[in-house]
Amino acid sequence: MQTVTVDKNFWELFPEAQLYTLVVNNMDNHAHDLALYQELLKEAFKASEKFLVEDDFKENFVISEWRDIFTQFKKKKGARSSIEALLKRVAQGKELAPINPLVDIYNSISLRYGVPCGGEDLDKINGDLHLGLAKGGEDFYPLGAQKSEPALPQEIIYYDLDGAICRSLNWREAQRTMLTEETTNAILVIEAVTPSQQERALEAIQELQAKIKDMLGVESELQIISNT
Q: Where is the B3/B4 tRNA-binding domain (predicted)?
């Protein structure tokens, strides 16, 4: 069984894309050693500087490639990939503070490999997790929102029976499925939309799997989903 059900309309738009997923079960996501995660993020922050070699931020390859991808579907004005948001913090010298162990681990991998990585609490997902083009109007509550900011027609979203879970592919995640310290079962996703992103994404998901085992003491199940 696939961890994410990818709709036909997504493959029609991005036929060469691949999704790399990890399912983690029965974990303790409480931080028992905050300094450990602070150091993990600090080291990844430094390592990510290799992706920022151009004077003009948007000309860096990771940034420009994802911006080009984001021109190919409907999105909210200003929506950018999650890896751009992280690398922008690096460019501005704004270090990341720990959030919770699983989020800290995947943020560190995202920075080290220049790939977007997101995660959801499996126990908060209603039905199957889908990826595809929105019909428009799917409910979406970002962190701290008091009212819905629904998906646009033809926007790429992850969704379930209750609405959108992540808007604009990997731009912003919903509060209702976000990972917290109380999360025990989770799914993590890295997208590679172009063939040039696939090698980094595969290396990233493999290291992510190893880090989760090393730091949280649990195994995870890796799956690669493609249009074949």
A: 64-214
